[in-house]
């Protein structure tokens, strides 16, 4: 009987200890269910929205079959240049340089630049013609950035993401 009462007391004591740990509600601390882009006012923000804006440039090719085709190709080149610039800003650039010298002169010098990434959520704000057949394309990429888990994702995408600490990173915001 003594043994049974000791086991019951031990189980109750463990139940009290562990029930105190499970009472933490992270969703109420972060603004409740449906939290939109950060905590309520007065709390330290864990998330930031960072906007990257670039202007891509494209040239109308001389070998186009018609003026319309030249304009379309220049627009596509301008958008592609904008994407390249965004990748370079967000992810960085890998530079590979090689130089060979001998007898006080440079015999061979080459520099290669590489960048590669997936881009999601890029907005083409405006495409407009410029001087000398150059077309300009303004692009914008808005990224949610969570400082805690060093996580980033485009605004409007990834509403069900969680950080490494298990905290929800739902953005749900469509502010523009």
Description:
The protein is an alpha+beta fold and 176 residues long. The chain is built from three helices and six strands; from the N terminus they run H-H-E-H-E-E-E-E-E. Strands 1, 4, 5 and 6 form a four-stranded antiparallel beta sheet that branches. Strands 2-3 form a two-stranded antiparallel sheet. Strand 4 and strand 5 form a beta hairpin. The protein is flat.
Oligomer: single chain
Assign the structural class, choosing from mainly alpha, mainly beta, alpha/beta, alpha+beta, or little secondary structure: alpha+beta
H/E order of the elements?
HHEHEEEEE
**pLDDT < 50 runs, ≥5 residues:** 20-44, 171-176
Q: How much helix, percentage-wise, in residues?
A: 25-40%
Major β-sheet, in short?
4 strands, antiparallel
**What is the tally of beta strands?**
6
Count of alpha and pi helical runs: 3
How far is the first residue's CA from the last residue's CA? 70 Å
Topology:
Elements: H1 2-21, H2 26-29, E1 47-59, H3 67-91, E2 94-102, E3 105-114, E4 123-129, E5 134-146, E6 151-154
Antiparallel strand pairs: 1-5, 2-3, 4-5, 5-6
In short:
By secondary structure, the chain is α+β, with helices and mostly antiparallel strands. The chain has three helices and six strands; from the N terminus they run ααβαβββββ. The protein has helices at residues 2-21, 26-29, 67-91, and strands spanning 47-59, 94-102, 105-114, 123-129, 134-146, 151-154.
């Amino acid at each position: 009987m003594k043994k049974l009462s000791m086991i019951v007391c031990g189980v109750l004591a463990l139940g009290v200890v562990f029930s105190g740990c499970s009472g933490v509600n992270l969703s109420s601390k972060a603004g409740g269910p449906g939290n939109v882009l950060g905590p309520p006012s007065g709390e330290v923000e864990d998330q930031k929205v960072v906007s990257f804006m670039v202007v891509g440039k494209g040239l109308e090719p001389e070998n186009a079959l018609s003026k319309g085709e030249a304009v379309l190709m220049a627009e596509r080149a301008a958008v592609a240049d904008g994407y390249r610039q965004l990748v370079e800003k967000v992810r960085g650039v890998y530079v590979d340089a090689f130089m060979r010298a001998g007898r006080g002169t440079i015999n061979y010098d080459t520099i290669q630049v590489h960048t590669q990434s997936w881009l999601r959520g890029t907005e083409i704000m405006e495409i407009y013609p410029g001087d000398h057949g150059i077309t300009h394309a303004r692009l914008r990429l808005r990224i949610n950035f969570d400082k805690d888990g060093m996580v980033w994702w485009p605004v409007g995408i990834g509403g069900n993401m969680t950080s490494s600490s298990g905290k929800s990173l739902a953005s749900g915001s469509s502010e523009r």
